[in-house]
Specification:
36% helix; alpha/beta; 7-stranded mixed beta sheet
Length: 406
């Protein structure tokens, strides 16, 4: 009987395996000269660069944090992960409730979602790829362009989103860090210098976030044009685009070395469903289609993203509410002398804590004594800073009340 499909190759006979068909590696000599397989050892099998790699430290979810703090989840004011406190569009829950085919594998091309994204962004859907969060798309770019342990480099501009370095480490790329200026602006001259150093392998990619995380600063058109003149792929992460409206996604039509990434996690409050997308040059996206996981975006994620785009005005109205809280934040914090906020075009504000206060201790006090969660950083230049995401009006009321009492 002949079989079609994925039946796979026929197995060799026992004799052919004895003849060495199965494998050609030298066996290990055992006791009394017998040939026995060697023992599997994890340490000698894991890629050396990953053995010493530091893990990414994620933000914990409500339930875990609540248990750690001994509080009910509803008593937690979570302002530490730049999430949307207003939650998804009500149409998302309705669409998921009525979804008829949750038992079927998702559309591997996200065709309906990409059509909705074409309407939302103005970018042709043939240039759009959807991922399980923008994080997946970042990883795919590394998989496509970086040869592990071959000395390939990328430019990172810290302090910024930690996934760029994380994915560089995972994929065996060398990271060239070009620190931001004291005001968190990009040092374009220093980035350009990376391409003039004969001792450094030409960087494959430059990663830029605008608005930048954790400070909320943005890149100017002139700065972006200078980067695009470099012989590299510029990856512009616009995860917080809806809060700033600095829209460069259509630039992809005119630049074959620009990728723009976005997400549904922030403006559409779908962080828990992991849906992101990017606009890519044709010569990049044709290869990404080959290497992405076939069913990378779940049925639930696609349904939720489509419902969100069809209810976008409601969600963008919620974005305006968060922006209003951002403006309120600056007014309230002006009365707190030991907090110095930086300008932000995102849904969070970075504050430097006065020298008479301990930023790490402040985070601990807010969490343990008041159930208010904020972000503190231990990286150089940020160890005296906290980042506060914008919450609902009542959440911000509680935050300000606590801060004034400290």
């Amino acid at each position: 009987m002949a079989f079609a499909g994925n039946a796979g190759p026929s197995l060799p006979s026992r004799g052919s395996r004895r003849a060495g068909w199965c494998c050609s590696a030298e066996p290990t000599a055992g006791i009394a000269g017998a040939m026995t397989p060697g023992k599997f050892r994890v340490e000698s099998s894991v890629r050396p660069s990953l053995v010493e790699m530091q893990p990414y430290v994620p933000i914990l979810p409500y339930e875990v944090l609540a248990e750690k703090l001994g509080r009910a989840p509803r008593d937690i004011v979570k302002l530490d992960a730049n999430e949307n406190p207003f939650g998804p569009s009500p149409d998302v829950a309705a669409a998921l409730r009525d979804a008829p085919f949750l038992h079927v594998y998702p559309d591997p091309e996200c065709a309906e979602l990409r059509e909705e994204l074409r309407n939302y962004t103005g970018v042709d859907k043939e240039r759009i790829l959807v991922g399980a969060g923008a994080d997946e798309l970042i990883d795919l770019l590394f998989r496509l362009l970086v040869e592990p342990a071959a000395g390939d480099t990328i430019v990172n501009t810290p302090p910024t989103f930690g996934m760029y370095k994380f994915d560089a480490d995972v994929n065996g790329a060398r990271v060239i860090n070009v620190p931001r200026r004291p005001d968190f602006g990009l040092d374009i001259d220093a980035i350009e210098a990376c391409f003039q150093d004969p001792a450094v392998k030409r960087p494959k990619m430059v990663f830029v976030t605008s608005p930048n995380n954790p400070d909320g600063s943005t890149i100017s058109d002139d700065q972006l044009r200078r980067l695009l003149r470099l012989p590299t792929l510029v990856v512009l992460d616009e995860a917080y685009f809806e809060f700033s409206r600095d829209n460069r996604i259509l630039w992809v039509n005119d630049h074959d070395n620009l990728v723009v990434l976005r997400t549904f996690s922030k403006w559409a409050a779908l962080a828990g469903l992991r849906v992101g997308y990017g606009a890519f040059p044709p010569d990049i996206i044709k290869h990404l289609w080959k290497i992405k996981q076939p069913y990378n975006v779940s049925v639930a994620g696609q349904i939720a993203a489509i419902a969100s785009l069809r209810d976008k005005q409601n969600l963008l109205d919620k974005v305006e509410l968060m922006k209003a809280q951002r403006e309120r934040f600056y007014k309230e914090v002006a009365e707190i002398p030991w907090l110095s906020p930086y300008p932000s075009s995102a849904n969070y504000v970075l504050c430097r804590v006065g020298k008479d206060r301990d930023a790490a201790g402040l985070k601990k006090t807010l969490a343990e004594d008041h159930g208010v969660l904020i972000r503190h950083y231990t990286s150089p230049g940020l160890d005296d800073c906290i980042r506060i995401s914008m919450g609902t009006p009542s959440q911000m009321d509680r935050l300000f009340e606590v801060l004034r009492g400290l």
